[in-house]
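Why L-xylulose reductase? Reviewers of the renewal asked for a concrete example.
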Amino acid sequence: MAGQVLEDVYDNCFAGRRVLVTGAGKGLGYAIAKKFYEHGASVFALDKNKKSLEALKDELKNVTIITVDLRDWDETRRLVKSIAPIDHLVNNAAISQTSYFEEVDPTQIDELFNVNFKAVVNVTQTVTKSMALELGDQGVRVNCISPAPTVVLHEMFVSPNPKIIQETQKILDRQIIKRPVQPSEAAEIVMFLSSPSSSMITGSSLPVDGGIFTR
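Here is what the prediction returned.
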């Protein structure tokens, strides 16, 4: 019953709303874009992988796809400005390195910083001009989710390095709920945080991790 109530809320609040999802070509981003689309939103799916975006559009015919490498500051800014205004922004795109600390090199650091930090700042500046603390009195809310590695395992944590595989398995073994977290489950939390049902939640990070950090 509660689930259906939320579904009805989503139908009412997202229909016709303009939603931008970065890293929407596969995995969690794909699931998020699909969920918004199913509730009537006008979805803009951004990714650097054109083939993945075209596969998304084959399934969700009215999605607008945007192919750009988020490391390109100016082109990203230009394309995001071209689709304004945006009502909901989901900064989903991210990369991870699977090297041990002593193996990390400057190129890997630059890649992480450019995609996981600079791109988020760039897209968010272009869409909302600021963040939760500054625009809270104008109705702008900013939250994030912290999904378990199992959500993005195939995209970000697959490695031929046996040490990395072993360490990843240790993380998975810590989950209290003994199954992988699905992208659709994490997408549900994004929907909730984007809806009026979470109207008094801002500046928060919600774990979606099957209880990894509860022990």
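The longest helix spans residues 106-128. This is the kind of structural detail the renewal will allow us to pursue systematically.
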